[in-house]
Request: fold
Amino acid sequence: MLNKKFAKLFTICLALVLVLPILPALGATTSAIQKGEMAGYLIVPHEKVPETYNAGYSMYVAAWPLVGQYPGQRFQTGLFGTWMFAQKETQPSIKLYSDVEGGLGWWRDTEYATETPKFIMGGVAPNFREWANGPGAGKGRDWKQPKGKYGIAQLSPWLLWPPDGLNLKQGTCGELFGYGYLPLPLTPTKTTTAGKDIPTGDQSWTLFLNTRNFKGPVAFFTPYFWSGSVVAEPQFKGMLLDVRPSNPNRALQMETQHIPSIQAVDARGETYSRVAPTFFPCATNGESWLVHQITSYNKQALWDSVKIWFDGGAEASGMIHSQGAILHQFTGKGGATWKIYPDSAVKEDRVPLAWISFATPMAADPNTFGYRWDLKVVTQTDSKNGSLVKLPEYFHLVKCGGKPHWVPVRAEEVPAETGLANAQFGRPSERKPLTFVTPDDANSCWKKPGPSVGPFKARPGDGSVVTYYWYRFADQPALLNADLTDQEREALQVKVEKLHRNWKKDRDYLAPPAFGKLAELDPALILTPPPGLEVGYVPIATRQAAKE
Reply:
């Protein structure tokens, strides 16, 4: 993160670089174009809150098309998101990485990608031994080794979750996507797990959404997703999210792993680069408001009232109580580690981008983070769906204080012999998308006891066709693989039927944003249960394939 002293020095040095003539290198010749990438993090500091707010979080993040054209399956980046870790009693002496991350973005295993981002849940078992991205979606495609594909159970009867990720409406451009995770007391604490002397906690971490056309709980990590890992690796006993509260003081960043770039050397030996057109949403005043209302919760927010309801007391509305919530305030500061480098570059040769030369982090108000753009360097543009700002496309490699940096330059300042101006960053020709198919064995958990009705088909805007069936909630495959007895599943069925009757999809659960428009989910995924299956049944995808 840049401090004030360094920022001032860098600005002066940058000005000198752009003004002083650069002497030609004797005998230099042009070189071939090298392919590479732009990657790194945009870092968003915010104030810490008391550790007692350890029962989940929510926030609003802008959703937009980061690149002008989807650049192929090497493209992987998230929009602004966070990492929810279990709160530690003591610092473990063993290596342990396990959390809920995911969020909006694009991934290398996204098969039906467009410029519009998708959402995944991103639960990570210890040290990435497996992960769960949504109902039926996890690590790899081999159902003989599920690796998290049974880790998330569908809860909502009104929203279909495609295995490739939850689709936003095509053309989403700067609207706010509200989401968060809070635990629900759906299953009791267990003293043994899979026949072993390993406890399973009672926390079902549940995804809540607030969008224009869907609000409320969607799906949850089964407690066994966490405790099952402990059966395999007992050293993690008592450390994971089925039993532990969440750490409220989470990092907030935008993690970019690959935006295509190219670079070349001119006749004087100067190096230039060009990146694929990259965009941020932007208002007419040159500002982007990108993250809003980061909130952490304690169990007064939701857990306590739901527990009373499930134990026979007063009905819980599902609205998250403000007395159990606290907002994180933004500092107005921010950092960037984006770098541009060729594919062949070792880590030490990856050169940073002069981000502060065109973007200034800011707090639009105590609860809203964004950037103020230098409109002399970036380009404002209006798409058919909203206003955007295009980041600098061309950069020049210069040294400042003895260290190299990429500084933005205009297209006409790049020597023609580099060939960068003629490059294309279109969508490449790639293999056909892989078909997602669940087990078809008559004796599998997908068939016994099996669905109640189906098949049905949904056609989201990503060019796929999703085949789904309606399962009785307790008979969905994830719960048949959650180390629950028949009696435990039936008790869970009773609780969820209460939720289906009372928690509808068209009222607020998370506190609404203070400004802006809410993003929409793909309308093809908003469902109405068949007659007679309105309560206690959920849609489960069994196949996702390209349109014929």
